[in-house]
Design brief:
By secondary structure, the protein is an alpha/beta fold. The protein has 5 helices and 10 strands.
Length: 172
């Protein structure tokens, strides 16, 4: 798939939400959050990562979690409670690609299967704008966090993630 194909697919998925947004092209080698923010001048507090998690149950239960880059997902408590499982972990690269069609490092909440729950940490909603993955390492989506509320199967969750490195903060 070409960069323009990626853009067209992303634009189609986001434009149907009816919320203003901007697509931002980036060098795929610089798509990881820390490098992206440093290179392109974005505040890491505005970067929101999408991580696919899997509940260890039969059948397996999945969700896409959206959290601010400096935060860590509370997999052991908040995520397992939402999934209704005793254990959960990050989905592996192959499992993520099979489920979403996207590679780790480029996962976006836009264009996911409509039955996949999207759990958004409440801290994301407090930002004036967020920079989200674009489904490939070539693109980012910049918008107000309200764009996430237009997604199907979305839920804002207080305490889904916490600030990394703080005593008592959630850990993965």
């Amino acid at each position: 798939m070409t960069v323009e194909d990626d853009r067209q697919q992303l634009d189609e998925a986001v434009s149907r939400l009816g919320v203003p947004y901007e697509l931002f092209a980036c060098d795929p080698a610089l798509a990881d959050t820390a490098q992206f923010c440093a290179t392109y001048g974005f505040d890491p507090e505005d970067a929101a990562n999408t991580i696919v998690v899997v509940g260890k149950a039969q059948p397996r239960v999945y969700a896409a979690c959206v959290l601010l880059a400096p935060h860590r997902l509370d997999v052991n408590h908040a995520v397992t409670a939402k999934l209704g499982t005793r254990r959960a972990s990050f989905a592996g690269a192959d499992e993520t690609r099979e489920l979403t069609g996207m590679a780790i490092g480029g996962v976006t909440p836009f264009g996911l299967p409509p039955d996949l729950p999207v759990l958004v940490d409440a801290a994301v909603m407090a930002r004036p704008r967020v920079v989200l993955g674009g489904g490939s390492r070539n693109w980012k989506v910049i918008a107000t966090p309200q764009i996430l509320l237009a997604l199907p199967n979305v839920e804002v969750v207080e305490g889904l993630a916490g600030i990394s490195g703080q005593s008592g903060s959630p850990v993965s």
